Amino acid sequence: MIGGAPGTAAHLKERLGPRGTDIVAHGRVDGLQREPFVDAIVLDGVDLVDGTAAVRRATAAPLLIIGPDQAVAATCLGMGADAWLPSGSAMNLVAAQVLAMLAKRALSPPRTHLKVGRIELNLEARRAHVQDRELPLTPREFDLLNVFLLNEGTVLSRDRILAAAWGPRFVGEPKTVDVHVAWLRPKLEASGVRITTLRGIGYRLDELERARPRVLFVCVENAGRSQIAAAFLKRMSDGRVDVESAGTRPAKRVHSEVIDVMREVGIDVSNERPKALSA
Questions:
Q1: Does any domain span residue 275?
Q2: Strand ranges in 45-165 using DSSP code E only, listed in sequence order
Q3: Using an 8 Å Cβ cutoff, are 223 and 238 in contact?
């Protein structure tokens, strides 16, 4: 446990100790250097963004963050935190979340490889390949690519990239990211991914060959409602989702289109028969 009010670790130990769990408390994230082998981490009350970045650079252990700000929590979850609870949550709830993370970790083998498009990272050996070709990456480029692949399809600001790939103690200009992205891009040719610059915002890595999700809005009695919803999602997805509106087409035809979409995404529709849809 990193951070937290005085006595919090003791309260957590009361609940988890009888289950055979050891609780080690540190006031700062650098305490991880003295505890390299942990099965779960609770980050409470410290700088959550920098803390999450530091934790993820040190270990892939499940991470629970505790803090008051939902926007900060969303950022940390995008950086690799596994769960969030608001400040002041009951210790029974914190303990239950830790137990859930431990159970999930026991069922899931630790991630040693990361694959997006045709790129595969070996996180233990710190080597990257595009099919059978090894990419000549510097240590910093490997960290940068790891951050992009973990957040595929998500817009990342320069500050967020710096925190995740350089660490919370980085001192320098945010444009350092621009330089390293420029060096990394030529090495990603024929990799099936692309790093897109969003001016004034940051960067986004996209997988080029994956089929885009398809969403069909159905509102049989109200064409306007489905059209408005479809237009909203299309705008919010920045073109990364194919969106259609079924409008007021006959119910039987709409049902047929829904079945087509279900089939495309791998849902078993063998027992479905064309039938009228209620509003």
A1: no
A2: 63-67, 83-86, 113-116, 119-122, 127-130, 133-134
A3: no
